[in-house]
Write a structure and sequence with these properties.
This protein is of the alpha+beta class. It is built from ten helices and six strands. The protein starts with 7 loop residues before the first strand and ends with a helix. Keywords: Endonuclease, Hydrolase, Nuclease.
Amino acid sequence: MTVNSMTGFARSIGSFKTYSWQWEAKSVNGKGLEIRCRMPAGFDQLEDKIRKLLKSTFHRGSMNIQLQFENTQGEQAYRVNTVFLDELLTLANQYVEEGRGQLPNMDGMLALKGVIEQNDIAQDHAGNDELQAVLLESAAEVLANLSSVRAEEGGRLSPILNAQLDEIEILVSRAKEQIVDGPDNSRRRLKTQMDRILSETKTLDEGRLEQELALLATKADISEELDRLSSHIASAREVLNGTSDHGMGRRLDFICQEFNREANTLCSKSSDKALTQTGLDMKAVIDRLREQVQNIE
């Protein structure tokens, strides 16, 4: 199965008649799929299609896609809004006739906001079905490139994840070796401490003492935590080597939470310095693993 990262960048260019364009698509980490589109005015219908294409290609990540349009024949980029200019001149004449002003000069009129406006040639052709078809094809190309970049980045993450799982597995094995005599050692240590306390009195029932010592030794037993850690390692490897990459990042993130919970319990139960250090080393590796998992789709 392919491990896909959520980070990547891709660009593609295209042309149609007198127009050329450039698509840019980039993605970063995100809890879900977040899409932001920047299109020239008038391309709302195309934006809806782009969003559907993105949703069919990606499952997670904060996605940004932008379309830049250019007229290759050098048509004028600005035009005079004659309707607005005529309205201003009519209003100016009314003020002159009423004696409340003088006729403005043309330079002043053209300088007014809204008289000269940008000539959005792209918007004039936004409804062209043929143009939209080639733009959509070009968008599909840039998204395919982005998907390849994310897969390539994910390919670099895969051996890192497996190596970190190997580290956790080694630490679990070390902890199992450290607790071979763990319950008995804890029981003997507790009994020695109690014998010292009770050296001057015989009022405590020996049978009750044995029960309490057995209970404390049972609470200090971490064999179940280690078994669950081994099970989580197997689950993580199944996710990485499975047949579907859908939801891989979320499942691995959940497994990391379980890893961390068991490692915390191990450290809290341990009364042995070496075993506690093993638990702390395990937590450090789990933190590094979780950081990498945050990059996976």
